[in-house]
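Hey, can you fold this?
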Amino acid sequence: MSDTTKTATRTQGPLLIELVEGRNVSFKNVTFSDEASFTRFEILFRRLNRKPRQRRTAHEARTAAPLPLGTPARSISIEIKDFLEDMRRSNLAPRSVAIYGQSLAALKHLHGDTLASAVERDHIRQLWDLMLWAPKNCFTDPRYAGKSAEELAHLGRLERARPAATATMVKHHTILCRFFNSLKKAHAISMSPMDGFKKPKLELANEHRKRPRWLTNDELQRIFNPETFTPWAKHHPHRWWAPMIGLYTGARVGEVAQMKVSDVECINGRWFFAIRKTVDSDLANSSGAISRQTLKGKSSERNIPIAQPLIDAGFLVYLQDLKDANCTRLFPHLTAGRNKKTGQTNALYSQGLVQQFRKYMKALGFDRDCRFHAFRRTLVSVLSAKGVRDRNIALLTGHAMRDQSQVIDHHYRGEVPEETIRRQVIALSKYRPSVVLPVYKKGQFDEQLKDKSRHHP
């Protein structure tokens, strides 16, 4: 807080500091009754002790003006903790909360546990350089312990071939803006230090950008080759069905992994996968209803017709086996995970499936970029090549449309479900991957479905 602080004593109750000396001012025998009084004094001391700005010549750079001080803010660590807790209360997905925490960790590392109101524009510039070049895991790896932000950025320049991607910096910018704007709305600061920083512009042309990975018919045949697929999947329901569902729906891996038995519905004689978020009754508490399922956004909520090849492969037979075994999850062996610190669900059913499928693809000789998401890209690419309108593809994939047509249809035209189904069915009829799916036999997974000791809610 000060250039010189002498003889701080505290018995039970108030804190007494006999002398606080700074560049421009000194205080004697200062008594603090609580944390709030200490915070206000520190703000006052910083303002009175600020170094005077020197006049610049025509050839000198302009010095950034200090931000006005607002209502006393608390330390950065406390403000970050409360901000993340607010994110949880607003039902932000646990994974997203973790991403917010990672970005804000850089802010705390740079400034230490000082007052949040003391962060200024120059600090943000230093923080930006740190996030642009920071080595991987620099805040958790013991090798980087005790190093300053400048040292970390320097090491990052030596270790990395290029700075962080523009999309990553856009994410950091968004998180920092939300954090400081929340303090501004709470009157903890009068201005946000992010106000002068524009969001980075995403370049349309990027020579390092990888081609989106989709699958050819030959590659699909390799994946579902019975000589390799059956031995890998025959003891695991999620290994057997999730890739097939991904192939014929274009659904995200998390959407497939988290489905419940009740999410498979028959409407007017046609079967659908209902991609939605429903309450888990065992998680209900005083804070309200909670679900282990997550959705990327409002547009992700949809019904997808179950393609005939899936029905021919015995999916409805498997569905009945699940009901006979009183299973509530489509893939009961996948877990949502639990946060060790908070005890709350991670809502991440896809993690185990992603890892297992990645190993399978690697064993088949596919490159690292060929993941479960390739099924989604394949469906979109094939339908687009066959002239299906983007808006109709989005009815299957749950992509958000950037134009206003989707907003108008949803809020004003009131499109009847029958018309949506018709357009979905027409689109799916044009998608005929050249692959033969293995056929499920009734009772094939009886042993796995009846052994509840390995099931997860």
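Oh, and this one too while you're at it.
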Amino acid sequence: MIEATELANKWNIQPEFRQRRQPKVKKHFDELLSDYRLNNTQILFKINVFNVVMNRVLTQISNRFIYRSMKKINKLSDLLLPKIILSCDETSIKNKCTAIYNKYP
């Protein structure tokens, strides 16, 4: 959030948010804090925009680098599973072993 404010100042953009009028809601004695409304515009921006963008970026990075690479590694090393060894013939086992050896010498 601090970096975003510094960047806005660098681009001559005012890092201030408009204050909206909060509607008054009748409060009851058994009301929980989950009904609390935020009045600070910076916190609202952080929750509604900044955290959403960061969540999306982290999800895309994990999908792109972690899951795809794990699929490749699992496909290459599926020979280590006993079920695969028993179902393959000798030539396919040998071919898979050479593929693993060529990938990780």
